[in-house]
Amino acid sequence: MPVKFNLLVLCFLLFSAVSCRQETKKTEKSKQQVPILSTIEEKRFKLLLSDLEDLKTDDCLKNASLGYYIIDITKESNKTVIAQNEQTRPMMPASTLKLFVTAPALEIFGPPVIAEVTVTNEHSVNWRSSKLLRRIGGKIYNHNTKEAGIQAILEFWKAKGLDTRGMYFDDGNGLSRNNAISPKQLVDALFIMTNSKYWLPFYESLPIAGITGTLHKALRGTAAEGRVRAKTGTIAGVKSFAGYVKSVSGRELIFSIIVNDYSCRTKLIKKKLEAIMLRMAEV
């Protein structure tokens, strides 16, 4: 009996040691998967924040409104705010408004509209976005009208958990100066879509910096080329960008930045906002 008992104890101890070693390996692997800011990343985040602060006092924005909101979603199922300014104030979004039409169009109509959504977002085609809005109204309320479409997309985003307070749609393409969306609402909508079954076609519909669509000339030859996918927006006195960034270190960011009533040339403000996107890509 003592011999058998000792053998059982020995087997138990060996099993415990192996299990403990396996658990340690699992824990170490788990720790490796949690993204920790490196010294370089930390410095680059500080540079990004510094550039955003400098933008607030730029001569181009002397009498303008600047709103931005940036989150880091590198850690799965988690988001960390890394920059915010006037993030909840409704602003004129210009064509970034199309995101609020094309996303629900994908979920409501499915695969048949993927090609149309891609063309709409990639090349910012106003009439296509307006058409999608009316189609949504027809599907949900049996009325192919702008008003029915607007009501349908507001209900869509509310049902997804988006805070729609202060949000206002006057059209389905972003041309109206009466449209109002906050930078945070844009980012929240983009974050919501990362959990959609149509996430991939939605993501792939966005222009790629330096390669496709309305961003095909932007940031070529920089760290942002191929790393930024974003919807652009431009009307008189308004410039906006909203989208996703996969940085050089592998961090995943969602951002929106809007400027209303700037005083310099559009080409100049565009360059300044592109510089912010480059900073994000360099993190």
Short characterization:
This protein has 283 residues and is of the alpha+beta class. The protein has helices spanning 2-33, 39-56, 99-109, 114-123, 126-141, 146-159, 183-193, 199-204, 266-282; strands at residues 65-72, 80-85, 228-235, 238-246, 252-260.
Polypeptide structure, described:
This protein is of the alpha+beta class and 283 residues long. The protein has one domain: Beta-lactamase (3-Layer(aba) Sandwich). It is 48% helix and 14% strand. It has 9 helices and 5 strands; from the N terminus they run ααββααααααβββα. It has helices at residues 2-33, 39-56, 99-109, 114-123, 126-141, 146-159, 183-193, 199-204, 266-282, and strands spanning 65-72, 80-85, 228-235, 238-246, 252-260. Strands 2-1-5-4-3 form a 5-stranded antiparallel β-sheet, with helices on both faces. α3 (99-109) packs across α5. The N and C termini lie far apart (65 Å). Residues 7-34 have low confidence and may be disordered.
